[in-house]
Structures are given as structure tokens and as C-alpha cells.
Protein 1
Amino acid sequence: MKIGIVLSGGGIRGIAHLGVLKALREKAVKIDMISGTSAGAIVGALFANGIEPYEALQIFQETKLLKFIKPAFRKPAFLNFESAESLFRNYIPHNSFDKLEIPLTITATDFMEGKLVYFNKGEVIRKVLASSCIPGIFSPIEIDGKFYVDGGVLNNFPVEPLIGECDFIIGSSCNHLPVVTQFRNVKHVIERAAILSINHDMVEKRKLIDVLIEPKGLGETSIFDVKKAEEIFWLAHEETLNQISSIKKAIEKVENIKASN
């Protein structure tokens, strides 16, 4: 019985995946494969390398990731995310997909050819960073002569690598949008439109997974609102615990079907 989990992109909202993973671990739901993009790729890489979810949260809070991100001089963006590579080497020193404790696939967008790419072999850190490079904000990252940006541009919920590989798939999404009656400002309008765009295929993606964990209203949180990291973590943790009974029943049902065949 192999259980996979797909982790969506979502900026700082991706901290929610850590809360989800903590609750699943507490309740003995073992994850055998991970697929993630953008923030989900970062969380997935740390968890796949054996770092406990709350420890990963503390890494984000104590190291202040943003201070590792430098201005992108003479590049087509404001910031250079490659400068954060040294930080990630502290926590994934072997820098190899093959040496992770849990198999991991991450997505990135080949910006030159305009196509989605799945990475699960070779060096891991630059590919994680590439998966997280929001176009226009972070400069594309070069890997083997090609330039890559955020995987969420083309697939913000990359469940596909888990299909056929896992018997049970859990989805963790951090972009649920509440109904609103007014718009606060231009920034609010732009951010809401962006999330609506990346959520456009979630109805179809929902059919490909067995369980979806999606804290309500989290999509209203700005992708750079680091002050809400702890709040996001525990909100997702609580949401997962609220669903854990139904999750375990669903897993048991699949196990019984598998055993009878």
C-alpha cells in the first residue's frame, strides 16, 4: 500500500503543507511518495530529506529566507532566488534526489520552450529553486542550458507523477478562495485573479485524488505575508486532524479492496 501526497504552490501559504504533514505523521499516516511545485517543492524536499514539519517551520522563521534573496542585477526580474542555494545546502547537504528518504518529483516550467518539466533525478536544490521562481519577481534559473521558472505557471497541483505509482493519493492545497462582496484595493484584485487562474483546473484534479485537504479561505493570504507563517501552519494542522478519521477510513477501504484482489 503506497500513499502519495501532492503539494500545491502558494508562496508563504505553502507553510500549510507542513501543518498537514505534521498531522499525518502524528496519526501514523506514512507518506511513500511526494509531488510538489513551487512552495510545495520546497516543503516536499525538506520533508523528503527527513526534516520534521515543525522544524521546517522554524527554519523558515529563524533563517528569514527573504534575507538570502538578493537583487537580480542585469537579469529579467527584481530578485535572484539562486542566492538561497547556500541556505538549502545546510538542510540537504547531499543535494541529490536519490539520497532523499522519500521519493520526490517536482515540477518547473521550461520558460524557453513553454512546457512543463518533471524533475526526480540528479541534483535537487537548483531544481527546487527553479520550481519556485515566480516570473517577473524571481529571475529564471539555468539548468543544463535551459531556463526554468515556477512550475505553478503550468501546473500548480502536480498530481500526475503519483498516478499509477500510488494506491492512495492525498492532495494538499493552500489556495482556497472565499466568496467576497468587495475588493480592498488593486493588489487584492490582482492577487485574487492570479489564484483564480491557478485554481481553474482543481475540479478536474480533484477527481484524480482520494482526499483533499484545503484549509478554507487561505487563498486570501498574500504569498509574501511571512508574519502569518505560524498561524497558517496550525490552521492546516487542525484542518487535517478534523479530516483524519475519514482519511483513515478511506485508506482502509482501499487496503481492503487491494487485499481482496
Protein 2
Amino acid sequence: MPHARISPESPIGIFDSGIGGLTVVKAVQAALPAERIIYFGDTARVPYGPKSQVTIRRYAREDTEILMKHQPKMIIVACNTVSALALDVVEEAAGEIPVIGVLKAGAELASRRSGSGRIGVIGTQATIGSNAYACAIQEEDPAIEVISKACPLFVPLAEEGFIDHAATRLVAEEYLAPLVASRIDTLVLGCTHYPILKSMIASIAGPGIDIIDSAEAVADKTRALLAAQGMLNPGTGAAMPHLLVSDLPQKFRELYRLFMGTELPDVELVGV
């Protein structure tokens, strides 16, 4: 794709396996209100977490190709599973435009923030099984000890809107107990759904544990990268995100409200 067609006014493309990546949209909007955002949620094929690497890599390519039709100036992989297992596929499909993965941004921030060098990571089965967070954190600082835990029930609980529910607290206490016992001082939310449960997770982790929201880390990295390239949108208005989904489940409107705190804008259905 010729680079000449990309300008500071071009949109930022963001994709996720479903709706969890809206936490990244929200963080990028808060940091960069003038930017146009095209978001693709692969709601027909969610979740990616339990699927095989071959399938995840194929989906990653298809998701990127959907966004590339909109000529974005950057692609953000809001899916931790794709960030862990298929970032190279996205980079190849994106050609010359920069790609930011939620995983590396979160790992960089966690390693900067940790004082004791003991970091906990929670995520889906695929993300934790890939060991990608531990590798990315130890790339930043080999002395850091990483304690990882898959928390597969957090995604359905978040999507159910069980933010402040007794069932969520029980599950969270069960998942987080070994991490808290390991005396971590930093906990990475290694799945884009988890910020929805952030206050519950923080209350169980206690005040001594710094919670790293990868969505905020991505937003900071996005601003820095666009500024360095002179590609920040000079506009002053706040643009609504343009939403693409591969399936429009009944619950999409309420999930959008849950994740974004606003009413749903127009949604475009795309085939995968």
C-alpha cells in the first residue's frame, strides 16, 4: 500500500477477539481525543483464548486485513492472545505502518513500576500458556520474577456485567490467592476484559499491589509513537469510534455501555 495515502488525519485501527478491546479504545480516546478510531471486534469467533495457535494466527491476519481497508496510520492489537501468539502475522499484514501490541506495552510498564522485582500476570489460558508476558517482562529486566495465573472465568463474568457480584469475588479470591501469597508488588491485567473488574481485583490484591492496566500503557505508547512520527491528528473535535463487528449479539448494546460508559454509536456488520 502506498504510504502517501496515510496522513495525520488517517484513523487508528484497533482490533480484538470481541468486545474487551473497547477498554483500549476508551484509554486511547481519553489520551488522544482528536484521533479517529476504527474498531473491529470479532464477535462471531470470540473467544480466541482457548483456540489453537494455527487458528489464532489465521484470525489475526483476517482481522488486520479488515482494518487495512480503512487505510489506518497505525494498528493496535488489543487482543492479548493475538499479541502473544501472532504479532508477527499482524506486522506482516500491516506492511509499513506501525503495530502496537497490548502485551509488550503492559510488560514494559510493569517492569518499570515494580520495586521488588516480583510481578504477577493474569490472562486467558492461551496468553498464560504462551509464557509471552514472562518473556517480555524478562526481556526488559532478566532479574524480575514473574508469577502467572490463567483466569478463564473472568471474561464471562465481565461480559455478564457481574462487576460487583459475590460470585465474581469468590472466583477472584480463588484465582488471586496464590499471587498475593507470592508477595508480588505489581499485577498485570493481561486481558482487555479485566479492567472492567479492576476495582474488585484491586480490593482483593490490597493496597500494596500496583495494578497495571495494559490499555492505559498502550494509550501512552500510541501517543509517544504518533508524536515521534509527526502523525498526531491536529483536529480539536472528539470523534466517535467507528465500530465494525463480525456478529451483532443481542447483548452488544449493553456490553458497549458497560465498557465505554456511553450509548452505542452506529455499528457496521462485516463478514469474516
